[in-house]
Write a structure and sequence with these properties.
Elements (H helix, E strand, L loop, with lengths): L1 E8 L6 H6 L9 E8 L6 H7 L3 E4 L5 H11 L4 E4 L11 H10 L4 E5 L11 H18 L11 E4 L17 H13 L4 E5 L13 H4 L1
Parallel strand pairs: 1-2, 1-4, 2-3, 5-7
Antiparallel strand pairs: 4-6, 5-6
Length: about 210
């Protein structure tokens, strides 16, 4: 089983190397590669990622969702893993999460940050905004996901053979859209939410609390 880790970036030179190196590369899967979808960084993000062995693609079109849609098409792995480039998500958990996907016969996993979030990892309005959006999503859609804004997913690339599983949004709402599509079209028996640690970010955030969650 081959695995591609897709990471969107925009000026993440402080954390990109540590993010890539946080994912074990000790032969736990047949092939592991990293695909960086970069939004025209003006720092050393791309050079540092390439020096760490990642493939880098510059996506001139703006948007978090646009970056992921491009990455999903370009990823060559049988399994795709997504995570942010700021050391907030636990790369060391990737082998376990992929094994869970395969051994339990799942097609898609999303990670819940809320239960194991470290103190200070979701400061102030950002943490409150996540809670509001996640609660609203559960009330509106009743799809059983606690963390509607999580950006760490593990899934089989083959799910995109069903056109209904291909997200459409170019912005941050792709995160919630993808979860709704997974629950609706793959079903609860083929999807799961797994709690993982969530840590303080490394580097300056380029996210709008209310606009981006």
């Amino acid at each position: 089983m081959s695995v591609t880790v897709v990471i969107p970036t925009r000026n993440e030179e402080e954390a990109i190397v540590e993010t890539i190196q946080s994912v074990p590369n000790d032969g736990w899967c047949k092939e592991l590669d990293f695909l960086i979808i970069d939004g025209n960084s003006t720092d050393k993000t791309r050079d540092l990622a390439e020096s760490s062995g990642a493939k880098v693609y510059i996506e001139p079109r703006k948007g978090y969702g646009r970056a992921y849609k491009t990455g999903f098409v370009m990823a060559k792995g049988d399994v795709i893993v997504t995570m942010d480039a700021d050391c907030t998500y636990p790369g060391e958990e990737v082998p376990t999460l992929v094994r869970t996907l395969l051994e339990e016969g799942l097609d898609w996993i999303t990670c819940d940050r809320l239960k194991k979030a470290e103190e200070g990892s979701m400061p102030g309005l950002h943490g409150f905004g996540n809670w509001v959006l996640s609660t609203t999503a559960r009330l509106l859609y009743w799809y059983g996901i606690h963390d509607s804004q999580s950006g760490m997913w593990i899934f089989r690339k083959s799910i995109f053979e069903d056109e209904r599983m291909r997200p459409k949004h170019d912005g941050m709402p792709l995160s919630q859209e993808f979860k709704i599509r997974a629950r609706r079209y793959l079903g609860k028996e083929k999807t799961a939410e797994v709690s993982v640690p969530y840590r303080k970010r490394v580097g300056e955030a380029e996210i709008n609390t209310w606009g981006d969650g």
